[in-house]
Amino acid sequence: MAFETLETLTPLMKQYWDLKQQAQDALLLFRMGDFYELFGQDAIEASRILEITLTSRDKNKENPTPMAGVPHHSVQGYIQKLLKAGKKVAIGEQLGEVSEKLGPKSIVRREIVRTFTPAVQFDQEGNEAAYLGIAIPLADSSPGKWVLCFLDPSTGETLTSDPLTPTEIQNELLLESTSLKHLLKLGELFPENQTTPPSVLIENLPFNYLSMSQALDILRKNYGIDGFTSFINTAEGILGLGILITYVARSQKLDRITHLKLPAPLHQPRSLILGPRTAQHLDLLELFELIRKTKSCLGTRQLRRWLMEPLCSVPEIEKRQAAVKELSQSGDCVRRISQELSELYDLERICARINTGLANPRDSLALGKSLALVPKILDALRPSKSELLNETQEKLTLLLTALTPISEKILSSQLEEPPISTKEGGIFKRGVSPELDHLLTLTEEGQEFLVKLEVRERAATGIPSLKVRYNRVFGYYIEITQAHLKNVPPHYQRKQTTVGGERFFT
Question: Is residue 423 scored above 70 in pLDDT?
Fold first, then answer.
């Protein structure tokens, strides 16, 4: 910290540097009223990436501290830009108000509530996955072999590989279909001579970040099951996933991650494994862009996955071909399904935001609208006869009973155009809650309510001059003149005495 000395720090800046020490290599966004501020080297770096004005704190001092800020109401856009630049971002949030006991010069309590990385984020949009990865060396019985583990926090997808050589590790890390955004390294442990795409954030963790027994406990706690031999075939895979889950949970201040999918192999046994050069020579990504007519983010990610991991089982290929052939010959079915899927939101990421407490009213409405599409898609598929489409019908039928009540409850209670923040109100329809309806009425018809209240209280007390008034010091109150104080009912609470009477609350 070359900009200020400890002796010259104000209490606010001392609080900032304490949090910055916790944030370490992450850029710290420090909430100050309506802005998130950055100081020192963080401000210099963020101003360059975000193209915002770089100013300074205490300009008259010999070594003023660089300073830059962004408005709190649009911070998500700035966070995404920093993450796309390969940076980590820590959010130092205000968690209280100025203490009345300490006076107006006291400072608000602040803590780091979340830390985001290019992979550990929940507000990104788009079709591409964003994986957090780690490589774990196998025990001495298999020298030179490593296990790769991946976790996409935004969807809950978890993947583990079979034991791989350093060359195979290199191929996986460079394969564009991997969508690796952030790679963790345990101390100096990493396959030799490995290179990663320049856009991947590399972060070193201490060698003792997690023990094997701790990792197994983490998996049991997060997945809710005891055994993992059916999903993970190496102890190193358990350790790797345990580290990834722990890293994400700690960065988001979560006790557990509830939207995790069961661990799956990095490459399905029925799929052909392609190296990065093979994918490039076959122009698979160009082919993907050419044939991409998908209507949803989920469909786009699945199509990309299928292209980069083509089937190698003849029966599976023929089953998929039969479904495609039937759809290609049924124009009406395809039109109906396409129309419904075009209204489908990114359910994987919505569910992740709900389970991590980051969802907003628009997310819940999008969930309700998406689930309402299930019976419509099912109805469009009913004439289908191919095996794969029949299996899809069976799965949707099983889901229908569970999902329909959720969809109906959301759509019947939420307004069509809710705000992005719960603090703004305007989320629910009338009729959801009598108490809420009453509060809405007060908001919309407050003046009329006060007139009725005054009339009602005059009748109840027999005081014809009773008045309901308001000022900025006391808020709303009932004013009664000296002549009628003898008629004040016992439930009135005296608040202030004036020249001509007294003021009361109920």
Answer: yes
Q: What are phi and psi of 136, to 5 degrees?
A: -120, 125
For 169-201, letters b (16+ CB in 10 Å) and e give bbbbbbbbbbbbbbbbebeeebbeebeeeeebb
> Could you give the dihedral angle defined by the CA atoms of residues 161, 162, 163 and 168, in that order, rounded to the nearest 10 degrees?
-60
Q: Say what the pTM is.
A: 0.80
Cβ burial 485-496 (10 Å sphere, 16+ → b, else e): eeebeeebeeee
Q: Between helices 387-413 and 374-381, what is the axis angle to 10°?
A: 150
Pairing of strands 131-137, 180-186: parallel
> What length is written for the chain?
506
Cβ atoms 419, 380 nearer than 8 A: no
Spatial CB neighbours of 464, under 8 Å, sequence gap ≥ 6 = 458
Between helix 40-50 and helix 75-84 the angle, nearest 10°, is 90
Residues 6+ apart with CB under 8 A from 339: none
What is the mean pLDDT of the segment spanning 157-172? 90
Neighbours of 90 (CB within 10 A): 23
CA atoms of 267 and 274, how far apart (whole Å): 10
Enclosing H/E stretch for 264: strand 264-265
What pLDDT, on a 0 to 100 scale, did the predictor assign at position 447?
84
Predicted pLDDT of residue 277: 82
Q: Report d(CA 152, CA 244) in Å as an integer.
A: 10
SS3 429: coil
| The pLDDT of residue 364 | 95
Number of H helices, E strands in the chain: 17, 16
Could you tell me which residues come within 8 angstroms of residue 197 by beta carbon, excluding any fewer than 6 positions away?
173, 174, 180
Backbone angles phi, psi at 397, to 5 degrees: -65, -40
Q: What are the residues whose beta carbons fall under 8 Å from the beta carbon of 111, sequence distance 6 or more?
A: 19, 92, 93, 95
Average pLDDT over residues 151-156: 94
* Alpha-carbon span 396 to 346, nearest angstrom: 17
- SS3 for 3? coil
User: The tokens of 45 are what?
Assistant: 């770096």
Secondary structure letter of residue 231 according to DSSP: T
State the Cα–Cα distance between residues 169 and 452, nearest whole angstrom: 75
